[in-house]
Design a protein that fits this description.
transmembrane helix, single chain, transmembrane, 5 helices, mainly alpha, 78% helix
Length: 137
């Protein structure tokens, strides 16, 4: 179970690192090159760079949770991730009209998975991890 938890945390951290670096250092590219982002103009470099920094902070939390595998830290990191992913999924589920059915279905599946995966890992962590883990495992 610990391997599953660590793998999921590392996958989410990698996603957050990629997103955070892209939006922090290449905000115009993110706005112009990621489908659906430009549906809600105007472009704001400040907003994208701030979002990138917060996303990198979430990645740090996820990486720390993957390293220590303490139940409290894992749940806290995943709760922080869900604080973003739940509203993000709701937004996209309500704004699918602007694209064709294939990309819209793909986007909807991905944003739903971005909520379900952390919830599943929280449930697994609650059952599989002790709260008094002393160090890396």
């Amino acid at each position: 179970m610990k391997t599953i938890i660590r793998t999921a945390l590392l996958a989410l951290a990698a996603l957050q690192l990629t997103l955070g670096v892209w939006t922090s250092f290449f905000p115009r590219s993110f706005y112009e090159d990621v489908p659906t982002v430009d549906w809600t103009p105007p472009y704001s470099e400040h907003l994208f760079r701030d979002f990138g920094g917060v996303t990198l902070g979430t990645a740090v939390m996820l990486l720390a949770a993957a390293y220590w595998l303490d139940r409290r830290l894992v749940i806290l990191a995943l709760a922080a991730y869900l604080t973003f992913s739940v509203p993000h999924a709701i937004f996209h589920s309500e704004h699918l009209m602007e694209d064709s059915p294939g990309p819209s279905a793909t986007l909807l599946i991905l944003v739903i998975l971005s909520v379900l995966l952390p919830l599943l890992v929280i449930w697994i962590s609650w059952r599989a991890l002790a709260t008094d883990t002393p160090g890396p495992r």
